[in-house]
Amino acid sequence: MSNRHLDAALTRRDILPPLPSIDWSLIGKSAPGIVDLGNPSKDTPLPKSDVVVITWTVAEWSALDHVFVNSDKDRNRNTTSFHKEWSERANEDTSIEGYNLWGYYRMVKITNANGKELKVLLWKASAHLAHPPYGKGLEKMVEVILSESQPKQIYTIGTAGGASVKECLGDTVFTNCGVIHIQKSENDFLSNKKVSCDTWFPSLDLFPAVEKNLLFKLDQVVNDTELKDILYETIHDPEKGNPAWEGTCTIADLTNEAINPANLGNPRGLDKKGVDMLTTDFYYIATPEDGNKYAALEMDDTVIGIVAKSMDTDFVFVRNISDPVVPFKKKDGSPFPDGLRDSFSGKIYEHFGFYSSMNGALLTWATIAAETSI
Q1: What is the pTM of this model?
Q2: How does pLDDT run across 325-353, given as a tens digit for each residue?
Q3: Does CATH number 3.40.50.1580 belong to domain 24-369?
């Protein structure tokens, strides 16, 4: 099953366009500046920072690098050349069950609303709640980052499932709180834990300018033909599909407000302060009961928040909607075949998570640039 905690598949490269270069002058701003860290070894402690931004998958990482580091050129889906520009952080002294690769990092500088130059540590995480060493490893990774880099704020950003049809493909939600639901025994110690950052929430002042001028409009890549092709891929995928699904539904049955191309031309940053992010260690797509109960559905954030709060670091969860809510029933009221909704949701993520991730990264930049509390 394709799902957002794995790397978004780089599919249909011959058809889907690259991420465009970013013209920062459209909003009267400049691109982030690069901080030269020299050539640190994997054992070198992380540099001190004001802000840390963490992401996970290859597609999310590429979009993060595109926005914060290499925004002056288009970014193709299969680009990996930037990987060698990032430094590795690993240390056997801080390993968990033999796992000691915590991630890859770069540093940039962003001028905030007070005119102060903030040092921002960008982090591509290698620890994850759903994979060994599970929650304990994820906690240790965050402890290493916060103890060495000592930021005042930490952002978790990346792809997520929508909680309701109000969150469209390409939108990005911001929230300060989360709750964990667990299935894996390795993570039992985290079951039903909650966290909230009550001391800070980022400024959204730059959202209107960024939404209007810089965000990637998903109607550029989502249309009826593309959606029909995705349904065909869903059915005939040799590993995740089922030929018996052929003819059981149409793309109209699977299209709702959250993925209708007519609604994807104005992606938004959404203030979900006070609405829990749902963190799970299993693939989960929204049910009719979820509605406004959650900001979005993802697989790491609340753990990061728990550690950050214990270490007196402010945090915010930023998630772009890469796999919006799939209809629960067909147009005639009958159910979909078992597994089809999950598989279709995964395919939407594979095709479009690269683009929605650019929006999440841009809106993250916008809140750092609008910051006044540091």
Answers
A1: 0.95
A2: 999 999 999 999 999 999 999 999 999 99
A3: yes
